[in-house]
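Reviewers of the previous submission asked for a worked example of the structure-prediction workflow described in the proposal, so we include one complete record here. The input consisted solely of the amino acid sequence. No template or homolog information was supplied to the procedure at any stage.
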Amino acid sequence: MELVVHRRETENIGRNWALVYGRRKVGKTFMLRRFYPWDYFALISRDGSIWIDGLDIEKFTDIDEFRRFLSKALKKRKKVVIDEFQRLPLNILEILATLHPSGTLILSGSSMKVLNTVLGKNSPLLGMLEEHFIDLIHPQDLLKELEMHDYLDYLPYLRDPWLIPMMKGNSILKDLYNVVVHTPFTIPSLIGEIFTEEDRKLTSTYEGIIESIGAMHGKASEISSILYHKGLISRDSPSAVAPYIKNLVKMGILKEIRISGKKSVIYRMKSPIFSVFYYLRDKYDLEIRIPSFEEAKENIMKIHSYCYEDFVANLMADIHNTYLSYSYEPEIDGIAVDRKGRPVFAIEVKHGNITQKEVSNFVDKTEKLGGKRVVVAKNRIEYEDVISLTPEDIKEIILSWKPIIK
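From that input alone, the workflow returned the following structure tokens.
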């Protein structure tokens, strides 16, 4: 599949000094290279060499020469992007701080060290940079370029730009299967690389948390118990995993889900493909054996339906500028509430068709909530006081959405 998506985030990165950060493979480098009007684009490689676009030379091999170039460029009010800047020596960042606010400097990076380097209390650049967290592609930006019948099946996954060339668009289940079986080490590496540059010892703990959530254990108490019995943490307590979970949320790996009527939260993958991968890895131990498509098809459908329903419920909450929470007793896909916690609507999402009986059960479960009732399914259904939406309706809603640029 070929798509070039113009991302709205570039519209918010102006002439001020800025930090652009987020996990790997969310499209930061492509976005800045393709859509940000830079004069010079520098990439800091792992070995310390500095590749540069916008000059006659291809790279700097001398760090002092690069420092002199930066100083001259910024003083001439040029726009300079430095990708993977956290690999630069600290003294270069200290020198950069003395040049503020000359020119435009955009620092981009992916690891936890990015946050510690720039936003830590001892950072020489603290307070000098706007912060721009780059997440998955905005649904509206993607949908403007996406022309296919089963768009809503693909939309949750194609927001992860590295998946775009890997999906054919003919069958979501086969595409998900092919991504998982042909990239068994890619997704763990995407997560692990965030932390390995800082402390390789932490990687197994983060991986343990991710694996637990992939197996649908979303409570901090469940996660800590699993990690304790694996010997990854020293005590079985939610507080023992809280700092790790906080970092995973901060870097866009995990998301918090509120529990309706309670102060507690559960955690789920932010990227749907991560959910699919770790769910199937838990079922089949993919590092040892790859199941056939027919063998895995039922479980792929289960996790895809979950990702689909989760995406649509969250999307509708975002469109209406509300917060989504979940209810277990009774079980409700989503309850959208305003800033004061008042229900705006309850939502039921089905990947396929929905029956009158299922809608009736949904109405009964939400009778005491207040607010509207919304049902999203492949078929439209008539039911009193229920708003019925199909994928085509959702498409029109997304395209006409006027979200706030964050």
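The chain is about 40% helix and 15% strand. We consider this example representative of the routine output the project will generate in years two and three.
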